[in-house]
Amino acid sequence: MALARALINRPTVLLLDEPLGALDLKLRREMQLELKQLQEQVGITFIFVTHDQDEAFSMADRVAVMRDGRILQDGPPEGIYDQPVDPWVASFIGQMNLFPGTVEAVTGTTVIRLERGRMAEGPVPVEPVSVGGTALVAVRPERVWMRVATDPGLVAQQPRADEVRFDGRLVRSVFLGDRVEHIVDAAQLGTVLITNSNTRDAAGQPTLHPGEEVVIGWTRDSVRIVVDRQAAGIRH
User: Fold this and answer.
1) 145: which of 14, 135, 172, 218 is 20 to 30 A away, CA to CA?
2) pTM of the model
3) For residue 234, is pLDDT > 80?
4) Hey, which bits of the chain come out as E strands?
């Protein structure tokens, strides 16, 4: 009823401050679709305030991430998720593995020497970096693959030119319904979070158990290089 009263005057912009916060999950998702369809029909700009990231990403054409009253980044949901501008945005939006290191080279790509010695490579970041400066290698958990270390196919397969691999040990796995989260301790990285879809066939992979030796890795296009803008003195 309140929404109908607000729309009847045809405002240019309508502010909705967490309008679905009191609803249960199923009804909340139904209302998200209804509000999205309504906005498209009436053609009015909706500013939708929410602390639910899934809600923001599913409904918004443009997302703004705020901290301490400042907008740190804004843009389409895909851009916010795939191209975070700094470590805070990277870790605040979804889940992110962040591995600090030192910039070794900046050419067509950025080469980082991780704190524990290994090299990693990714695209040139949004913020400027220079050789010898600090940066973080950011990899989303769903973009890290994991295989049992004794997998014959893995042992026989040479790493791709754009791929990096690390040895590790599975610490634990958490079943979350549609996905499974794995925590791996990798000597050359530290703690790594990996997310897999809950598929029965799992590409023929055997069930892994805590304590089992694994190999994890990612490809270069899965990596983002981010700079701590506050530490680097870059103003938002």
Assistant:
1) 135
2) 0.81
3) no
4) 13-17, 45-49, 63-67, 70-75, 97-106, 110-114, 119-122, 134-139, 145-148, 163-175, 179-186, 190-197, 213-219, 223-226
